[in-house]
Write a structure and sequence with these properties.
233 residues; 11 helices; mainly alpha; membrane
Amino acid sequence: MLFTFSDLGIGAAITRAVARENESPQDAAVAEATVWRGWTVLAVAALAGVLLVGVVGMTVGWDTLLGIPEPHGAAANAATTGALCLFLAFLPVSSARRVLVGQGRSTLLALMGVIPPLVGLAVAAGLAVADTPAFAFALAPTVGMAAYDVACMAVASRRGAARDAWRRLGRRATRPALPTVRIGAVASSMLVLTVANAALIQGSRIVLAHRGDAAEPHRVLAGAAGCICRCGR
């Protein structure tokens, strides 16, 4: 939830370019170039992110940054490192969602939204049967989102700019040189908006984690339940 800006704002540029790909051959070429450039930038960002996450996990520890006390620190650090690395590894694939929006297939995208909870539930059930440590369940929603992104990519890459960019990636067809495109203007504005949104909405959770302790949520819930009961009377 903290990384709603993970696509670096590139998704907005991809959506706009793909939405215009049928207007002319030039627009089709620009759309392919935008998708290709977006994938390339996100792949580099994913690699850098995985390296950063690994370094933090091996040095400072994510449990320290997130305010998770002992004796849960080691398990929380391992689970957070694994979940973040998996999330970042699928970062380029996640742009397929924005391709589907540009293709005018938002309804299909919404219907495919059942994939993350279903896959996440299946993974969680498997972890429960295997009696894994509690923090390992952090991987369940991440695996669900990864499956969702792979499914979106499989659908989006069957037509238009995404199909052509995928063929270029796999070298299954000889493609002409791509035109030069600039995605920084659109991406930078979206990046600022999404970073600010994540900081405003999710940042308080990190503050509360550092100020409270493991029993704090139970005390808050107990207090809320007491207030509800009194109001009910």
